[in-house]
Specification:
By secondary structure, this protein is α/β, with parallel strands linked by helices. The chain is built from 19 helices and 18 strands. It has an 8-stranded parallel β-barrel, surrounded by 4 helices. A 3-stranded antiparallel β-sheet has the order 14-13-18.
Length: 578
């Protein structure tokens, strides 16, 4: 099968799911393949495990090809590209991975799907770090050489998804560790211009992800027009594609379409997430129909949008582990994944897209169930008054979720003060929460009518019931009764879903006083946050400079500060400014 032309449309989906089958780690980092799981395995054990992966990959590839996706993304180039700079043990491991992945690539290609490999820039081993040092010239030359060899060794790979803004956390115990080395738009631009001729030579695509983290000057690449313009200045390559998330932050609701889609004529694809990492990871329905329908309509006016890239498994650090298109219990993610493709590939509306979903016996009940799931998530998982505020701090959009982060529910005095700052009518917020609970009860009936897992709606009801009750604590005067009720429902929740039954949310409560008063909090949000992207003088002086220095000091001093400033009392605040 020949490689696609550089002008073909891209409808990509991540294919990392099969590699997590049977992974017994309690909390999983879903950002990339669990390479640390493999690195200490004996050769015969690794081969047996990859035999299982091949069977699941065939199921996955057949399923996503059938509904219309034309390519998959997989991790990653460094683990498959050999080089003499690496340690002998690393090269031996790479040789094993290359053998196994060639067979996996063959399966994917047999299903008519193109293959794109991710690549963090730069991923280092100790030996490679020693060879390259801090020389930008040496790093760029190494990447060019590595990519050239990789494309020659793997002619079946259609391109690389290049990630420049992620650095591996402390939880990553792999032989390779990615580092943030491109610190400003000029460095990114030079790097891209040095490697794009390799892609053109081999007729492969370079899909450049604009999502970044960190305090470097490229940290605002996802939303800041000037940063993007400087980054892609002078780049005119048929092999180059921009890949951008739909919003100005991570995969949340209450996001407007990223305006950088309208900034340049460079070919671009939109990144979507159908296994909603901040909305239950597919443990309950969290339909994306209305949100994605609106984005798909708006993107019709953007120049040169050539497709989409869907995350059906990638994202988050959680214990939730349903595997899309491999296991039957991933139905909610699979519905989102099907609908997303119909919206962006065929230009359909959400209701029309659902009408093409196979195996639905009661279409009307299905439509109502998914519509209600969207309403409940928006009205209860999010705190609407806060979510609509659209605040920027330093370089990034503050996440619109408060009190919920991945698999954690935070109920604390710090959240109480923060919520009361943004919500004018707390009683109305309490009433709307309980109204949303009534919708979940209706969803249970509809799930039975659709022959869909009613137990997932029940799990949603128990989980969201805690959130609804917590609003009484957040917006009413403090008293012991509400604290006792919260403790009771937390215990009942743990009893309903004991360990070994199914993974549930971790409910983290702390009612100890939070030292910052409302006046100080109000001043912070008045002077240190902003409603629009862009930099003010105070952001450059305080937000980007002084706070960076203060962060280093506080990080080193944190153990000494704990007696005066309770770490538990601030829980939930960290998630907002992460």
């Amino acid at each position: 099968m020949d490689l696609p032309s550089l002008s073909s449309q891209l409808y990509l989906i991540d294919a990392i799911g099969p590699f997590f089958k049977g992974y017994d780690r309690v909390k999983i980092n879903w950002s990339k393949l669990p390479w640390a799981r493999f690195q200490d395995m004996k050769q015969e054990n690794l081969r047996a495990l990859f035999e299982q992966f091949r069977g699941d990959m065939d199921i996955f590839a057949r399923s996503v090809a059938k509904i219309g996706y034309n390519g998959v993304t997989l991790d990653d180039v460094p683990h498959l590209a050999d080089h003499e700079y690496y340690e002998t043990s690393v090269r031996n491991r790479i040789a094993l991975y290359r053998q196994e992945f060639r067979q996996i690539f063959k399966i994917i290609r047999s299903r008519g799907l193109q293959i794109y490999l991710t690549m963090d820039l730069l991923t280092l081993t100790p030996a490679l770090q020693k060879k390259l040092g801090n020389s930008e010239k040496k790093r760029n030359e190494f990447i060019v050489e590595l990519l050239n060899r990789f494309f020659e060794d793997f002619p079946q790979v259609a391109g690389v998804v290049l990630r420049i803004g992620e650095s591996d956390g402390l939880d990553v115990k792999d032989e390779f560790r990615s580092q943030l080395v491109l610190k400003n738009p000029a460095m990114v631009n030079r790097c891209l211009k040095s490697i794009l001729p390799v892609f053109e030579k081999h007729k492969r695509r370079c899909i450049f992800r604009t999502w970044t983290v960190g305090a470097h000057e490229v940290g605002d690449l996802i939303w800041h027009e000037a940063t993007l313009e400087k980054t892609v200045s002078g780049i005119d390559s048929p092999a180059f594609v921009l890949s951008m998330k739909y919003g100005e932050s991570d995969f949340f609701r209450y996001m407007s379409l990223n305006r950088n889609f309208f900034l340049t004529d460079i070919p671009k694809i939109v990144e979507l997430q159908t296994r909603r990492e901040f909305e239950g990871c597919g443990e309950f329905p969290s339909f994306i129909g209305d949100d994605y329908e609106q984005f798909s309509i708006e993107l019709r006016e953007a120049p040169n949008v050539v497709g989409m890239s869907v995350w059906c498994q990638t994202g988050g650090l959680t214990p939730f582990r349903r595997l899309a298109f491999i296991e039957e219990n991933a139905i909610w993610t699979e519905i989102n994944t099907f609908v997303a493709l119909r919206l962006f590939k065929h230009g359909e509306l959400a209701a029309e897209a659902l009408s093409h979903l196979p195996g639905i016996s009661n279409y009307a009940a299905m439509i109502e169930l998914l519509r209600l799931s969207e309403e409940v998530v928006i009205e209860l998982l999010y705190l609407p008054d806060f979510a609509r505020s659209k605040l920027f701090f330093r370089r990034v959009r503050i996440p619109p979720l408060i009190g919920v982060y991945w698999h954690n529910l935070f109920i604390s005095h710090s959240i109480k003060k923060l919520a009361s700052h943004f919500v004018e009518d707390g009683e109305a917020c309490i009433r709307s929460g309980y109204a949303a609970m009534a919708k979940i009860r209706r969803m249970r009936t509809l799930a039975l009518q659709c022959n869909l897992p009613e137990e997932d709606i029940e799990f949603m009801e128990y989980t969201f019931g805690i959130i609804a009750l917590s609003r009484e604590y957040l917006f009413r005067p403090l008293d012991d009764e509400i604290k006792e009720r919260l403790e009771y429902v937390k215990a009942a929740y743990k009893k309903k879903y004991p360990r070994g039954n199914r993974y549930r949310y971790a409910v983290k409560m702390d009612f100890s006083p939070f030292k910052f008063n409302k006046r100080i909090m109000g001043m912070f949000f008045t002077y240190m946050t902003k409603k629009q992207p862009g930099y003010r003088l105070i952001d450059k002086i305080v937000g980007l400079r002084l706070l960076s220095i203060a962060h280093v000091f506080l990080k080193r001093s944190r153990p000494r500060l704990v007696p005066k400033f309770s770490r538990k009392s601030a829980m939930g605040i960290d998630a907002i400014f992460k």
